Amino acid sequence: MKRELPKANEVWRHFKNKLYLIVSIATHSETREPYVVYKALYDDYADYIRPLDMFMSETDKVKYLSLIHISEPTRRTPI
């Protein structure tokens, strides 16, 4: 099943139940690889980047049996 790609201003829930704001999808200037730029919505509100394919990868369902992967959006409207 193909999942929707993240979009700016969406809030996504990590499989460990933390919330993140998608800031943008950026492109590496040399490799042209897409990256997700996102902000933690807890603790110090740090900014992070991760390659898009890694961000969208499946979670180990054996290790994290009943948890939701970060790729499941919780809200699709800007906050």
End-to-end Cα distance: 28 Å
Number of helices: 1
| Average pLDDT metric | 81
Rg over alpha carbons = 13 Å
Low-pLDDT runs of 5+ residues are 65-71
What is the makeup of the main sheet? 5 strands, antiparallel
Let me know the number of strands: 5
How do the strands of the widest beta sheet line up side by side?
Answer: 4-3-2-1-5
- The percent range for helix content is under 10%
Strand content: 35-45%
Structural class: mainly beta
SSE pattern, N- to C-terminal = EEEEHE
Question: Shape, please?
Answer: globular
Question: How are the secondary structure elements laid out?
Answer:
Blueprint: E1 11-13, E2 19-27, E3 34-40, E4 47-51, H1 52-55, E5 72-75
Antiparallel strand pairs: 1-2, 1-5, 2-3, 3-4
Structure in words:
9% of the residues are buried. Helices cover 5% and strands 35% of the residues. The model is unreliable at 65-71 (pLDDT under 50). It has one helix at 52-55, and strands at 11-13, 19-27, 34-40, 47-51, 72-75.
In short:
This protein has 79 residues and is mainly beta.
Features:
5-stranded antiparallel sheet; globular; mainly beta; 1 helix; 5% helix
